[in-house]
Amino acid sequence: MKHPIPDHNPMRNQFGPVAANTPAHFALSVNEGVATVTLNRPERKNPLTFDSYAELRDWFLGLQKATDIKAVVLTGAGDNFCSGGDVHEIIGPLTKMTMPELLAFTRMTGALVSAMRACPQPIVAAIDGVCAGAGAMMALASDMRLGTPTTNTAFLFTRVGLAGADMGACALLPRMIGQGRASELLFTGRAMTATEGHAWGFFNALHDSAALLPAAHKLAAQLAQGPTFAHGMTKTMLHQEWAMTLDQAIEAEAQAQAICMQTQDFKRAYEAFAAKQRPVFEGD
Fold first, then answer.
1. Would the pTM of this model clear 0.70, i.e. be above it?
2. Per-residue burial over 13-30, b = 16 or more CB atoms within 10 Å of its CB, e = otherwise
């Protein structure tokens, strides 16, 4: 992957491949610029632990300086996506912690969502079976979601005596499916069916289980072949414009597009069009 920071730039040493850093708490593979992150505890429906939260947070943070990743597929091993935080390895210990310790934990979990939203690469979540709690938040923090007819998504924080306000749920979910629907899910903790999720805009598409991961990889590969600097700009603007007025958003997009017009990919697209060829983007 070509990086916008050229080799001769003195900052270049700050950027490098992230795939070389083998994770301990999830599975990772990289193929032609697409990283596949697999939550890999299928015997427990892929729950998160203190360590996996932290490692996922750090890995997604590292994507901001990655030279080898253009798009990400996030999925779970086996027949489920993620059942949330491990009841015995997380919830049990939390009941014995002090307030400063608890705040450190909740800030760490929120930092995972922040890292996913801040990385420039588009994230495609491939979601089968159970998608609950923190797993539902990782799905929500992704840029696109593909599900199956049997996927059940539950923001079940109230089921364990907590607020529905967790990891940014009260900011992200209403923007995705609407205030009333989000309120119902966050107050009751009930599961959103795949049919509801698709109709409400949570899922971009539904596929049979066997076709789910191939569909996610196909979409991610298409994104990886696009103008990756411009994709990063699109993701940034989608995130930042939540807090802007329309006039502010129009001005911000004018500046963003002018920046993209300075890229070599913009020039490549014009030259390919003039030559009646398909552009080959390099991300600079």
1. yes
2. eeeeebbeeebebbebeb
